[in-house]
Amino acid sequence: MVSLDIALQSKFYANSPDKVLGPLSFSVSPGEFVALVGPSGAGKTTLLNMIAALQNCAPGEIKFNGRPLTGKPGCKIGYIFQQPRLMSWLTVADNLRLVKPDTTESDIEAILTKVGLAGKSDLYPKHLSGGMQRRVSIARAFLTEPDLLLLDEPFVSLDAPNADNLRSLLSELWVEQQPTVIFVTHDLNEAIQLADRILFLSSAPGMVILDKPVDIARPRLPDDSRLQRWKIDLLCEYSGLLEGALSGPGLKSVAGGQ
Ligand SMILES: Nc1ncnc2c1ncn2[C@@H]1O[C@H](COP(=O)(O)OP(=O)(O)OP(=O)(O)O)[C@@H](O)[C@H]1O
């Protein structure tokens, strides 16, 4: 578990005059599950990449447990992308060993069993369905027992039952390992179901326009009426704010919850 302090003045890409992010300031407590919601192009992926030290930031703008990021990851990080990004020429077991080379066969079987893929370690990605490949990517992220887990729309374009199953799996593994989580999504229902807190970003340049704790006791099932009520209250309470934000592309789908 790790705490995170973000205090970004601005983020530009070298090849563009447009500011992508900032000013942006928020903190995440150890073990907290934070959902990041915002329009397309608000800089959500850029922010995850900066936290993972895949993109530069100015000194002191990102801190792990109070210590500034120094160009290397500030702790053990797991990153789950929109696509599973498995190596097609490696078996499931060898894809997992890429992140932890000394993993024993029994440890591989144990994590695969947890994600519902017992006995599949010798298969190649082409033999797995899209949902199964995403399970492997979840297993790969949790295998290292990360202090911080970054997820970038990991369940997008999955059918509803598969996405529901994977959300439950993510919740179980989060409860078991308690990493700090930053979860990017366009789906407000998903954010309410999973997160302790939701941060809404404005359209580019991304700034936090709303920081809302989700005060609904767990477990939270997708068809839980409390989630729908909470969403309606949220939309009513902040309708003016959201209406303003809706003028940017992408947040329409947030308000619609799809
Ligand atoms: N490597 C890059 N070089 C230049 N500009 C980039 C680069 N990567 C992203 N951008 C730009 O930065 C802005 C933010 O992109 P980013 O992918 O972080 O947004 P996002 O909020 O994750 O979007 P989406 O929800 O559509 O995935 C966009 O305008 C994008 O074109």
TrEMBL record:
Keyword field: ATP-binding, Nucleotide-binding, Transport
Listed InterPro entries = AAA+_ATPase (IPR003593), ABC_transporter-like_ATP-bd (IPR003439), ABC_transporter-like_CS (IPR017871), ABC_transporter_ATP-bind (IPR050166), P-loop_NTPase (IPR027417)
Q: Which Pfam families match?
A: ABC_tran
Q: What is this protein called in UniProt?
A: ABC transporter ATP-binding protein
> The ABC transporter domain covers which part of the protein?
6-228
User: Which GO terms of the molecular function aspect are on file?
Assistant: ATP binding
Domain of life, per the record? Bacteria
Q: Show the taxonomic lineage.
A: Bacteria, Pseudomonadati, Pseudomonadota, Gammaproteobacteria, Oceanospirillales
Entry similarity comment: Belongs to the ABC transporter superfamily.
